[in-house]
From TrEMBL:
The keyword Mitochondrion does not apply. Residues 66-510 form the Amino acid permease/ SLC12A domain. Belongs to the amino acid-polyamine-organocation (APC) superfamily. Amino acid transporter (AAT) (TC 2.A.3.1) family. Residues 11-22 have a biased composition (Low complexity). One of its GO terms (cellular component) is membrane. It is a multi-pass membrane protein. Keywords: Amino-acid transport, Membrane, Transmembrane, Transmembrane helix, Transport. Signal peptide: none annotated. This is Amino acid permease. It comes from the Bacteria. Residues 1-50 are annotated as: Disordered.
């Protein structure tokens, strides 16, 4: 990692009266960092120095209900609806439940650390800004690229999935037509306003949440014999969970499943991305974080427990969604069509969130000067259109690579995106540790923070260690070892690109200075 910045950004933008952290005798750059995040609906007066910020303002258009659903929408995807059966086959019922429980705990610990940072500094694209301030500018650049890649690759796969899902109802139509329709819809939702994006995401996520709740309720009624289910003359209860032992395939598959679960839970950190465009982040961000754990437990562990209790684990996910298997066994008509619709909304939700997250990361990099600043320009509705177009272009390139070079380029991109989210989590936890230490060293007290990570420093270090272990121990999973190697190479390449960029900028400045000196000598 590069050397830590000494100019620490720790002032809460909601309270301009709070003193700033000073770690080296100079004033902090927190005002400069947070200026673009001050995105009230009415534009305040600016002098000439703030002219750039005037044209890069985002809108605080999200409410608490939007933020909570966005955090859920980023997590609940096709993996739960389609791939959960495969996970059950690998680790067994108890092993899968254990893996998801550990994964939910890791995510919750990370969210607790992110909460303190997001409330103190609610800036859009927050992860790389925190990494830049509390670890170093090189690491900030790497985190920005990592997170942008995560969602860009996801966009390509979601666009493809949307076209394939529509084939169930329109088998004679070309897949690309529906993929194009999905692209146009999602681009429009993001281009019109942040509130329209949030409202659309709220309803997309609501459909998924309703489907899971209905599945759990109907499944529990079948488990306790209230409603009949095919293949059972009596109430199934929970015998299938331990029918073949607690770990029928051994414990190592459980470990591999934990790694997969961490990837499945990526998306909860969207709370940090949206903080800069959320109304009253001091209230809404902590509320969204505290509801994350129990909702993850309810939706993921609850639905998987129901699956395992009603379907023998060796039959789960063999060619068909476990949700469809359960609904068909209970006798619910049109189960396949119902779940196809639910999965389609999950795809639209994931692509909607993915384009938003990718766009804000591009905007934030432009706002921080990592890429040309015109990427941070916004229109009168507060939408960064250039960043949006760049993010969509990245998604289209990922889509193209999935068609043309699926076994080479796209395979590498998928491997990178899988571990990138874990790298971001590691950075979040470490940034909070450094932030709190500098906050206290600068003479502040924890009582001045609007939101504090509970159990500091134990919670923070637990999040950091568990996430780092999840990253490093991938080496023991043969199928995912390639992803680890690709990720490490990519991280080195990102650092190399950053330092090359810095070298070019220094050379350019030196050349300009020499030209100026030459000009003055010629005049004399």
């Amino acid at each position: 990692m590069s050397q830590p910045d000494t100019d620490t950004a720790a002032q809460s933008p909601s309270s301009q009266q709070e003193p700033q952290i000073q770690t080296d005798g100079r004033r902090s750059h927190s005002e400069q960092m947070n200026q673009p995040a001050q995105t009230s609906q009415s534009e305040s007066s600016h002098d000439g120095k703030d002219e750039h910020a005037l044209h890069t303002n985002l809108k605080r258009g999200m409410e608490s209900r939007h933020l909570q659903m966005i955090s859920l929408g980023g997590v609940i995807g096709t993996g739960l609806f389609l791939s959960s059966g495969y996970t059950i086959q690998q680790a067994g019922p108890i092993g899968t439940i254990l893996a998801y429980s550990i994964g939910a705990l890791i995510v919750y610990l990370v969210m607790l650390t992110l909460g303190e940072l997001s409330v103190a500094m609610p800036v859009t694209g927050s992860f790389h800004v925190y990494a830049e301030k509390f670890i170093g500018p090189g690491t900030g650049f790497v985190i920005a690229i990592q997170y942008w890649l995560t969602w860009t690759v996801a966009l390509g796969s979601e666009f493809t999935a949307a076209g394939l899902l529509m084939q169930r109802w329109f088998p004679d139509s070309p897949t690309w037509v529906w993929s194009a329709a999905c692209i146009i819809l999602i681009f429009t939702l993001n281009a019109l306003s942040v509130r329209l994006f949030a409202e659309a995401e709220f309803w997309f996520a609501s459909i998924k949440v309703f489907a899971i709740c209905a599945f759990i309720v109907i499944g529990l009624l079948a488990i306790f014999g209230v409603i009949p289910i095919a293949g059972y003359q009596h109430a199934p209860m929970f015998g299938n969970l331990v029918k073949d032992g607690i770990f029928p395939n051994g414990f190592m598959p459980v470990f591999a499943t934990i790694l997969t679960v961490n990837f499945a839970f990526s998306g909860t950190e969207l709370i940090g991305v949206t903080a800069g465009e959320t109304r009253d982040p001091e209230t809404t961000v902590p509320k969204a974080i505290h509801t994350t754990l129990w909702r993850l437990v309810l939706f993921f562990i609850g639905s998987i427990t129901v699956m395992c209790a009603l379907i023998p684990w060796r039959q789960a996910g063999v060619g068909e969604s476990p949700f469809v298997l359960v609904f068909n066994s209970i006798g619910i008509p049109y189960a396949g069509d119902i779940m196809n619709f639910v999965v389609l909304t999950a795809v639209l939700s994931a692509s909607n969130s993915g384009l938003y997250a990718s766009t804000r990361m591009v905007w934030s990099m432009g706002n921080e000067g990592m890429i040309p600043r015109w990427f941070a320009k916004t229109n009168r509705r507060g939408v960064p259109m250039l960043a949006l177009c760049a993010a969509m272009a990245g998604g289209l390139l990922a889509l193209l690579s999935s068609v043309i070079a699926a076994s080479t380029v796209y395979l590498v991109l998928v491997a990178l995106s899988g571990l990138s989210a874990v790298v971001v989590w590691i950075a979040i936890a470490y940034c909070q540790i450094v932030f709190r230490r500098r906050w206290l060293e600068s003479g502040h007290s924890t009582s001045e923070l609007k939101y504090r990570t509970p159990g500091y420093p134990y919670v923070s270090w637990a999040a950091f260690i568990l996430c780092t272990a999840s990253f490093v121990l991938v080496i023991f999973d043969v199928e995912q070892r390639f992803a680890l190697v690709a990720e490490l190479v990519f991280i080195v390449a990102c650092y190399g690109a950053y330092f090359l960029q810095q070298w070019v900028r220094k050379r350019k400045k030196a050349t300009e200075a020499d030209d100026l000196d030459t000009l003055w000598v010629a005049r004399d």
